[in-house]
Design a protein that fits this description.
378 residues; 23-stranded parallel sheet
Length: 378
């Protein structure tokens, strides 16, 4: 009996030792050589997994780049503030191809990325840039205009992680008039990436932009963008559902196919845009490129449940007189709006094929008012 007991104990001890050893190895596999500093957040995360501490407020002092094979986890309630004194163009967070970022905010505890300036303004820092392996009609190995990330490929289901409940503000610093950050930029990001509940505020350029890829997004609030609010181009084949836009400088939506080959580049931009509310905002916002800028061929754009407030310009769309590819896509019926409400000031709706109910569309959920699903942004 005693021999049997000791034998069983020995076997159990070996099993426990084996489990403990496996657990340690798993832990070792996830360790990173990156040195995390609360007051000096910058550099390359080359390996492993780095998890921020939600009880700390991090100061971003330079570019933070998640390199291929590494993962950055940002728990709910984490705050990152971009340095008040560093060059604004040097301050950004970037995620390379084959890397992952997990922004794990909640409605009660969103992740916050903002400026540390006492009185921040648009352009106080760069923004968030994510690169993936999905198809782009500018080539499989492009380089992002900011962050110098390689992007594009053939894996349309690629995952760069997830972004949930993110407040990102005072972004869009500029290198020049043609090279500047957005609030959040997606370069060739695949459909395996989960994107929901993003609030961008006071972006010096676009609020959110998609450069090709297949990623889908839901529940976006884009307020006060100083170029376009929502932008997609270069063969984006995705959807955006529940989008509330207010404070429009240029276009509320800019949709393009390809700047250099507007009618030939494939895959053709194919955007499904569902439940949109568009409000120009105060007098400082001009919306001088209209509600929709159908540009560089435009591709295929299908809108459903589309609300445009009375303060937007009288013409619904902007289209260049020299953009033959865009004109052809419109003539071929590839630009549609089904179920819509346009303010009385909108007297020129030439362009898209209109169908469905008129005047009953609620857009993002409550017409010009902030929808209930976006109450977490208040």
């Amino acid at each position: 009996m005693k021999k049997s007991f000791f034998a069983m104990a020995a076997i159990l001890g070996l099993a426990l030792t084996s489990c403990s050893s496996d657990d340690n190895n798993k832990s070792d596999e996830n360790k990173s050589t990156f040195v995390l500093k609360v007051d000096d957040l910058k550099g390359n995360i080359n390996d492993g997994t780095v998890t921020l501490d939600p009880t700390q407020t991090y100061t971003l002092t330079g570019g933070l780049v998640v390199k291929g094979g590494a993962t950055l986890i940002i728990p709910a309630g984490t705050t990152i503030k971009a340095s008040a004194t560093a060059d604004p163009t040097s301050l950004f967070i970037a995620v390379e191809r084959n890397a992952k970022i997990n922004v794990n905010g909640t409605a009660a505890k969103p992740v916050i990325m903002t400026s540390a300036k006492a009185v921040p303004t648009e352009g106080s820092w760069g923004g968030l840039i994510i690169a993936g392996n999905a198809k782009v009609n500018t080539g499989d190995n492009g380089t992002s205009e900011v962050g110098s990330l390689s992007y594009g490929g053939t894996n349309n289901t690629d995952s760069s992680g997830n972004i949930n409940f993110l407040k990102i503000s005072y972004t869009g610093s500029k290198f020049s008039t043609t090279k500047e950050y957005n609030g959040v930029s997606f370069f060739g990001v695949g459909s395996g990436t989960v994107v929901s509940d993003i609030y961008t505020y006071e972006s010096g350029d676009d609020g959110i932009e998609f450069f090709g890829g297949t990623v889908n997004a839901t529940n976006l609030v884009i307020v006060n963008s100083y170029d376009d609010s929502f932008d997609f181009a270069d063969g984006w084949q995705g959807s955006a559902t529940n989008v509330y836009i207010k404070g429009v400088s240029k276009a509320a939506i800019e949709g393009s196919n390809n700047e250099k080959s507007p009618g030939e580049a494939t895959p053709v931009t194919t955007g499904k845009l569902v439940n949109f509310s568009i409000i120009k905002g105060g007098a400082t916002f001009l919306a001088d490129e209209k509600t929709i800028n159908f540009k560089d061929g435009g591709g295929k754009q299908a809108y459903t449940n589309f609300y445009v407030d009375n303060d937007m310009p009288s013409a619904l769309i902007k289209i260049s007189s020299t953009d033959a590819a865009a004109a052809k896509n419109i003539a071929d019926g590839f630009f549609t709006i089904e179920n819509y409400s346009f303010g009385a000031a909108m007297t020129n709706t030439t362009g898209p094929k209109l169908s469905g109910t008129v005047g009953a569309a609620t857009g993002a959920g409550a017409g010009a008012e902030l929808p209930s699903w976006a109450n977490w942004t208040k």
